[in-house]
């Protein structure tokens, strides 16, 4: 007898599940207790069938049952809970329960009574597909899923078409590898709905939004690679069609639908990144593109036509589109089709610049709102909301207003656009701006504030134009910052504008830099949060600029006064401003050589820490133990502990660091035991703070502690890694697991966890798309391979192979650096386990490292790789061309890194002895100057 014959929902069971849904979504009372009860049934197949039954019921199955809301609300909650259970419990539910969920959900998808229900049904279908496969639906005799979506439902109209659109979107978002290049066919098909005049307006907009959502989601993929994934290939192939639809809709005025117009302009911003994929185009198409993407957009920015509540978001997105075009032009060096889009911008500057400047001054109402929340004693309180999170974006509604597109956003967009104009065409833009600035500067405080922020905005792009007058303007700005008569708005933007010319100040003669620093420091103890933020942010910028320019010594004179101000501000700063203050303290600790100054900072933070711990503990108890509503956890302690850990890095004190580590271990343990999931920031901070203090505690102390704790800190991190879906939590868990293993060794993990974690990591890295996340996983995997290979050779080899599979040598920009770090970690593992060379893709390692900058990390990795190659001569010969590229990449710099030149010489000696003919061929193909340099550097004459 199969599962379906064993259980059928009864009225009593249905009534119980409806009550449970009521307590978890309709009613807000006792939400924690109700959620805990709900969790008990997570992997229960009967509960899954009950949820499926309720979700599929058009009306309440229990006659006369009193409900606390509409039946649709209960159905939606049942569907969301079912989806979550499928995601978390997976195979534990059993095939019968999954098939029942599939059947009930398909009946809803085919005949949805409400858009909200259709959306949830689509999500369940995608979760089941992720759990099984596309072919599973037909193999089980349920349905041919692609045929259902693209044929039966797609053209059915109304909510059934919406169901198909929802499902297609979520499939592309959640299963990108499975959809792959078919994304082009899906997008092309969906866009036919947009262009079909007979399509209902709501479906036309939904279809367009779906395509926008897909391209927006694709921004998270790694595009800094030459070889695109199948999904990326499909998206690029469809980009011309989508861009053409955008142009057509703009020509048609979007039927007078302003929300749709805003969505189309947002889509144009995304599609600019695909410009090279859908160009060149014929002259007429290019003219249309320029007219409607650029000229029409400038007209929107300059227009005085009132579109009511849409004025601000429409102008904001129009400015953002122009900014995106300008930044793309600057990024590619003005080459390609983007240069054609720039021409009308330069021709229309006389109208565009004044329109942008008009958006910069703040109104009296805006200033009043800022002032009402500006007292430094007011906390930035964020209440914790318990809710069932559906995820994904809703294509049935206009969602752009969720971006909080107010006047402040409009001003920021205007300033970004002005900045981009100055960078790309400062000479042409400056004359139109300078007159506007002069007029505003001499006016009232609101307009003067606008003039000063405009000066700071143009300082980089128009430096050549303002070079002769910048000294005098800087003196005026310093006087403004120091003046007691200026209001907080003028002072804060004066500080910001000064921070924009710090590169100039670092190279100027006289005391100008010291005077600027003194002005910044003078405002750190302001009672205005806005001024505090401006002053401390500017000081952080000064340290970064000094470091980048090798001019940190120019800041030394300000250190004593700065130290006193940091200590004075420490008790009164909170929230974001405290975090900035802690960044500043860390900058100072990193470069200050005066032991008395650094000791005073360390003592002040350790003393302040005692008070901050009390605030954290009281708020944590109030929220998670006492259940006090509308409270939030005071997280300022995490900022303080960043500085304490930084101080202990320079001046180790294992007793102090171990005590703090113990506190955060206990807090994390409590959070995990209480199953706290609603505050990922709290969990991440706890784990990252533990990681920081692991770094500064002696190995001997840690080893003794970990034996007593039996690896429970690692167990907590592992539990969070495998049970919480949030990427940020997983990333923090991986960081903590790596720090534990690096600081303590094998004893950091409890017995039985090592092999399980290796298998988990091998599976996880194949599901990760972001290169940064891959780098973190590779770092942990390679360290585990070094430590555990002798214990679990098979699992370690599989995990190592998964890490190696993540490598790619076709990356560029930021991604190139990330892949080079992965290559270095893999080479380090080869030093510990040389036998893994054959499966390490050594040719790929050599290619990646040949493209990397010559650094200490590259030096160590080069030595490890060559050591491994010299012990495997056949492999070394097979990849001779790639190894030679690595050797060439060092040029003469290898002499600056201990052991590197010698190791490269040994590699060349091997090739010269064993494969001299092939080596001569490679050397003869080089440019004579490079060949001469190689021969002389490595004594090969």
Automatic annotation (TrEMBL):
Keyword Plastid: no
GO CC, any one term: cytoplasm
Main location: cytoplasm
GO BP annotation list: protein import into nucleus
Keywords in alphabetical order: Cytoplasm, Protein transport, Repeat, Transport
Organism this protein belongs to: Trypanosoma rangeli SC58
Cell compartments where the protein resides: Cytoplasm
Protein name: Transportin2-like protein
PANTHER family per record: IMPORTIN BETA
Source taxon at top rank: Eukaryota
């Amino acid at each position: 007898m199969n599962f379906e014959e064993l259980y059928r929902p009864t009225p009593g069971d249905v009534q119980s599940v409806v009550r449970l849904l009521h307590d978890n979504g309709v009613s807000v009372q006792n939400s924690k207790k109700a959620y805990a009860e709900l969790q008990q049934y997570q992997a229960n197949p009967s509960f899954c069938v009950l949820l499926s039954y309720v979700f599929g019921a058009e009306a309440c199955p229990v006659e006369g049952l009193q409900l606390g809301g509409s039946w649709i609300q209960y159905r939606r909650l049942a569907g969301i809970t079912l989806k979550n259970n499928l995601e978390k419990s997976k195979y534990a539910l059993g095939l019968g329960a999954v098939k029942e969920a599939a059947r009930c959900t398909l009946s809803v998808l085919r005949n949805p009574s409400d858009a909200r229900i259709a959306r949830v049904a689509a999500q369940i279908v995608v979760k089941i597909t992720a759990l099984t496969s596309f072919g599973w639906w037909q193999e089980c005799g349920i349905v041919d899923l692609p045929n259902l979506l693209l044929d039966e439902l797609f053209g059915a109209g109304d909510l059934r078409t919406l169901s198909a659109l929802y499902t297609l979107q979520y499939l592309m978002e959640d299963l990108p590898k499975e959809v792959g290049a078919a994304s082009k066919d899906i997008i092309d098909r969906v866009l036919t709905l947009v262009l079909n005049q007979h399509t209902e307006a709501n479906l036309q907009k939904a279809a367009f939004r779906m395509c926008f959502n897909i391209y927006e989601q694709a921004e998270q993929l790694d595009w800094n690679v030459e070889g695109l994934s199948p999904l990326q290939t499909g998206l690029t192939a469809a980009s011309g069609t989508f861009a053409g639809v955008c142009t057509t809709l703009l020509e048609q005025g979007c039927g007078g639908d302003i929300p749709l117009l805003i969505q189309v302009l947002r889509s144009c911003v995304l599609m600019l990144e695909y410009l090279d994929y859908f160009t060149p185009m014929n002259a007429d198409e290019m003219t249309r593109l320029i007219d409607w993407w650029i000229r029409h957009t400038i007209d929107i920015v300059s227009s005085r036509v009132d579109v009511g509540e849409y004025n601000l978001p429409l102008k904001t997105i129009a400015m953002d589109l122009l900014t995106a075009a300008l930044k793309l032009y600057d990024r590619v060096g003005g080459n390609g089709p983007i240069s054609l889009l720039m021409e009308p911008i330069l021709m229309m500057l006389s109208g565009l610049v004044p329109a942008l400047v008009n958006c910069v001054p703040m109104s009296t109402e805006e200033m009043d709102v800022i002032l009402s929340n500006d007292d430094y004693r007011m906390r930035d309180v964020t209440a914790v909301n318990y809710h069932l999170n559906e995820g994904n974006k809703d294509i049935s509604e206009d969602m752009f207003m969720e971006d909080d597109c107010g006047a402040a956003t409009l001003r920021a967009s205007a300033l970004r656009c002005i900045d981009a104009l100055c960078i790309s065409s400062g000479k042409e833009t400056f004359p139109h701006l300078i007159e506007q600035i002069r007029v505003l500067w001499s006016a009232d405080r609101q307009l003067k504030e606008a003039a000063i922020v405009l000066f700071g905005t143009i300082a980089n792009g128009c430096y050549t134009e303002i070079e002769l007058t910048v000294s005098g303007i800087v003196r005026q700005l310093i006087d403004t910052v120091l003046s007691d008569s200026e209001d907080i708005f003028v002072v804060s933007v004066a500080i910001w504008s000064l921070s924009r010319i710090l590169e100039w100040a670092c190279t100027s003669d006289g005391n100008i830099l010291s005077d600027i620093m003194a002005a910044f420091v003078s405002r750190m103890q302001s009672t205005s949060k806005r001024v505090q933020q401006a002053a401390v942010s500017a000081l952080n910028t000064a340290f970064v600029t000094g470091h980048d320019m090798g001019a940190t010594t120019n800041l030394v004179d300000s250190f004593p006064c700065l130290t006193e101000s940091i200590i004075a501000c420490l008790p009164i700063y909170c929230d974001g401003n405290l975090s900035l203050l802690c960044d500043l303290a860390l900058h100072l600790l990193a470069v200050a050589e005066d032991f008395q100054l650094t000791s005073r900072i360390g003592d002040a933070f350790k003393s302040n820490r005692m008070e901050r711990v009390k605030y954290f503990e009281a708020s944590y108890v109030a929220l998670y133990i006492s259940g006090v509503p509308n409270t939030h956890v005071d997280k300022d302690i995490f900022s303080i502990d960043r500085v304490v850990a930084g101080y202990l890095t320079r001046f180790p004190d294992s007793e102090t660091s171990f005590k703090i580590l113990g506190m955060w271990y206990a807090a994390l343990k409590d959070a995990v035991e209480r199953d706290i999931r609603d505050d990922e920031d709290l969990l991440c901070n706890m784990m990252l703070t533990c990681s920081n203090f692991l770094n500064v505690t002696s190995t001997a102390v840690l080893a003794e502690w970990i034996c007593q704790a039996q690896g429970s800190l690692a167990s907590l991190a592992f539990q969070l890694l495998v049970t919480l879906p949030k990427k940020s939590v997983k990333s923090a868990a991986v960081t903590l697991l790596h720090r534990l293993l690096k600081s303590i060794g094998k004893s950091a993990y409890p017995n039985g966890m090592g092999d399980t974690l290796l298998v988990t990591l091998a599976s996880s890295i194949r599901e990760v798309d972001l290169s940064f996340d891959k780098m973190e996983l590779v770092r942990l995997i390679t360290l585990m391979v070094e430590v555990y290979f002798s214990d679990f050779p098979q699992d370690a080899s599989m995990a190592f192979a998964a890490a190696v599979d993540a490598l790619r040598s076709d990356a560029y920009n930021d991604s190139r650096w990330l892949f080079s770090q992965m290559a270095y970690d893999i080479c380090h593992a080869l030093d510990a386990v040389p036998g893994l060379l054959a499966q390490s893709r050594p040719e790929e390692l050599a290619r990646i490292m040949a493209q990397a900058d010559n650094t200490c990390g590259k030096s160590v990795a080069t030595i490890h790789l060559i050591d491994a190659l010299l012990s495997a001569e056949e492999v070394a010969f097979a990849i001779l061309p790639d190894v030679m590229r690595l050797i060439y990449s060092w040029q003469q710099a290898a002499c600056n890194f201990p052991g590197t030149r010698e190791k490269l010489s040994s590699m060349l000696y091997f090739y010269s002895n064993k494969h001299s003919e092939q080596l001569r061929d490679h050397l003869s193909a080089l440019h004579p100057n490079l060949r001469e340099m190689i021969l002389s550097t490595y004594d090969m004459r």
